[in-house]
Amino acid sequence: MLVEIVTIGNEVLSGRTLDTNFAFLARALEAASVQVGWHSTAADAVERIGEAIRLALDRADAVVVTGGLGPTPDDMTRKAVATVLGRPLQLDEAVRERILTRIRRAGRKILPAIESQALLPLGAEAWPNELGTAPGILIVHKGKPVVLLPGVPAEMEALATTCLVPYLRERSGRRVETFTLRTAGVYESWLHEKIGQAPTAWPGATLAYLPSYFGVDLRVTVSGTDEARVLDSTGRAYDELKALIGPWIYAEGEQTMEEVLGELLLERKWRLATAESCTGGLLAKRITDVPGASRYFERGFVTYSDAAKVSQLGVREADLVAHGAVSEPVAMQMADGARERSGAELGIAITGIAGPGGGTAAKPVGTVHIAVASPEGAAARKFHFLGTRRTVRERSAQTALDLARRRLAGLPLDPKLD
Amino acid sequence: MLVEIVTIGNEVLSGRTLDTNFAFLARALEAASVQVGWHSTAADAVERIGEAIRLALDRADAVVVTGGLGPTPDDMTRKAVATVLGRPLQLDEAVRERILTRIRRAGRKILPAIESQALLPLGAEAWPNELGTAPGILIVHKGKPVVLLPGVPAEMEALATTCLVPYLRERSGRRVETFTLRTAGVYESWLHEKIGQAPTAWPGATLAYLPSYFGVDLRVTVSGTDEARVLDSTGRAYDELKALIGPWIYAEGEQTMEEVLGELLLERKWRLATAESCTGGLLAKRITDVPGASRYFERGFVTYSDAAKVSQLGVREADLVAHGAVSEPVAMQMADGARERSGAELGIAITGIAGPGGGTAAKPVGTVHIAVASPEGAAARKFHFLGTRRTVRERSAQTALDLARRRLAGLPLDPKLD
Questions:
Q1: How confident is residue B13, by pLDDT bands cut at 50, 70 and 90?
Q2: Structurally, what CATH architecture does the domain formed by B2-172 represent?
Q3: DSSP secondary structure, B149-178, as one string
Q4: Per mean pLDDT, which of B104-108, B205-209, B330-334 is the most reliable?
Q5: Which residues of A9-68 form beta strands (DSSP E)?
Q6: With contact defined as beta carbons under 8 Å apart, do A75 and A69 qualify?
């Protein structure tokens, strides 16, 4: 099944908003064994949207549209679809009720325009949007599905995952298995060398290397018509990858490093405190992204100034002077201080130079010291992260979480590359 | 002049590579008074590329293609263009010489495939690529320019800036002006009601509402052939929007709330400390996203536990018991405590229920108290944010930054909705 994705919106077409929605959808559809054959972007104009959808219906087996479902006059997807498919818009009472209830519950004023979101093309089905007012819309037109999703990323992503992917997977008739192994602390090229041609022995399988700030995810997708063969090939791929690169895998699927760390802390009944300089709160933010983090996260110290490092964490002024704030002794004292001052069992500390300014020949931008302190003692590691301020900060936080995970799980802090 | 941009590449079409090239091109072309009317993405296949270019030539005044000019067999743009325009590929000796010189100078081995990059469609002109081997290619076909650029971002960007933009600017004869006003603390539907039909009085202008976690951006684009009229219409749009919704505008263009706050702090020579509960470090992270934040950010307290609120910020236990951690008195004491314990002039505090758990009938998920403390005293506001844990946290941080901005700028904390 070849799908066309159509992105609607002047803000995307003008280049001001990166089209992350398209990238999300294309990757999500892979899990439904659906390939993206075409992608187009249309302006917020009824004619342009209609033209894009007509063309997509001509060449693709299904059309997924994102954007232009809001309540304002520049949201024209509904009208364009109604026109191009010859399916007049009709008020859906159930959808209208859901929208009004949602707005009332939020204590917001109900403006007449909002009701336009309850207008659906004739014969359409609404997919409830748990995060906003515009529902997803499914129309099967001359046997081809046309799906309209909102453009707000969180809403689009939720609807794609819970409604669109299951729907298309059922239609495709193919069996698709997919799994993801998440690695950290190792380069894509090393993984590639280690794994080599192994995937050629997994029938129907493709292996994708997906690098990001957080490490390299390995996604295996196995597709076929014979269920038993697909499952067998999937199992083989999983076992072989675990054997080849096991020490670098920190999670499977969508699980994040902070979730893994949280589970380990709960298991051990340990509490955690963080001490951050260059990441400026990002590490604590990542940890508290996880619902229920209050069960193990005690507190965070964002000691951006030297004075804060001294007064909040007990870092020795002499060491700040002798070694500088970006140094191993300071990182160790920050981690120890976070533990001791909070009463938590585990302390994690980051101090580094995120840039763009502040680098020197001896300590260039990207120099970061990370320390972990636990009842067994403290340990620190030094890193050189490449990239922008954002990249350095993201990599620092991820690496700090990984070191804490290794310490908690009783794994070596530095697995050997062979 | 309406241009179509065509991106070539399976990597982009699969969603694995974000199409930053397109966004760059679209924005660069604005500077040439050229608007992007369409954007499409084609797979690495001669037929698909040909189909996309044929369609683009039908509807657009000019076509810009990026990607597929490399020397490997999956680079098929040259061949597709030659086929669809009926202009056979011919070896361009000057281009070939440039490529070979470049490779020799780099001490690389000359592989036969590299010479394919010296093949140009009949009648084409080559734009020299200073950063790589594939030249930019210009073909004027039946009066319409077709421009091929490499897909390597740095090479594409250099060619776009030095060759494409000047070339199209000269051809277009149109003038385009654009500006963005960023609002926070107000719903899109309210803005829309307030602005109403005003844009109809701005000749050649379109107004886009761009909602996100951070508020609603309003972008105006004015286009026309008469420069004076375009400038006049742009000025009118700007003045009228400022008059209609001025109190909600926190920035213009790409500037973020944390940047605006940072400038105000530098102006006043004030330092800032944060105290966070439910946002768990996000507020401090946002503030330190700005390079140079160390000039005004003193420290952050991520007091996730009640014990931390008491010991780190001096929140009174009696108030935690009587009112709960999510309450106005606790928010005020957190903000005051952050100021006093750090010596900073400004304290910002957030305490709330981000969810998904922890809500009650009296304090549902999304209940957030935000306080700002300065030498003038402390003030707190209560909010109900809708959405996921992430949304509640993002909105809380943005609103806290906005309240601090208003306090620093001497603006009322609650502008009146009328």
A1: very high
A2: 3-Layer(aba) Sandwich (3.40)
A3: E-SSHHHHHHHIIIIIHHHHHHHH--EEEE
A4: B330-334
A5: 35-42, 62-66
A6: yes
CA dist., res. B382 & res. B215, Å (int): 18
For residue B353, which phi and psi values (nearest 5 degrees)?
-115, 105
A235: CB partners within 8 A, 6+ apart:
none
Residues 6+ away with beta carbon under 8 Å from A177: A221, A222, A223, A230, A231, A234
CB contact under 8 A, B221 and A14: yes
Nearest by CB to residue A357, choosing from B287, B292, B386, is: B292
Domain B257-409 homologous superfamily, CATH: CinA-like (3.90.950.20)
Measured CA to CA, the distance from residue B256 to residue B391 in angstroms comes to: 17
Distance CA A355, CA A387 (A): 9
Residue A184, both tokens: 């950290």
Inter-chain contacts counted by CB atoms under 8 A, chains A and B: 251
Lookup: tokens for B182? 């960023």
Architecture of domain A175-252: 2-Layer Sandwich (3.30)
Answer whether B188 sits within 8 Å of A43, measured CB to CB: no
Q: What is the pTM of this model?
A: 0.80
Interchain proximity B281–A302, CB inside 8 Å: yes
Q: H helices within A173-277, ranges in order? A: 188-195, 227-245, 257-268
* Residue whose pair of structure tokens reads 């040439």 in the numeric block: B32
Map out the domains of chain B as residue ranges: 2-172, 175-252, 257-409
Supply the pLDDT for residue A316: 98
| Burial of A25: CB neighbours in 10 Å, binned 0-12, 13-18, 19+ | buried
The rounded distance, in Å, linking the Cα atoms of B341 and A241 is: 51
Per-residue pLDDT reduced to its tens digit, A360-373? 999 999 999 999 99
Query: CB–CB of B24 and A15 under 8 A?
Result: yes
- Taking CB atoms and an 8 Å cutoff, what residues of chain B touch A36? 13-15
- Could you tell me which chain B residue has the CA closest to the CA of A292? B357
Residues from chain B that touch A282, judged by Cβ atoms under 8 A, are 281, 285, 288
**Residue pair B278/B392 in contact by the 8 Å Cβ criterion:** yes
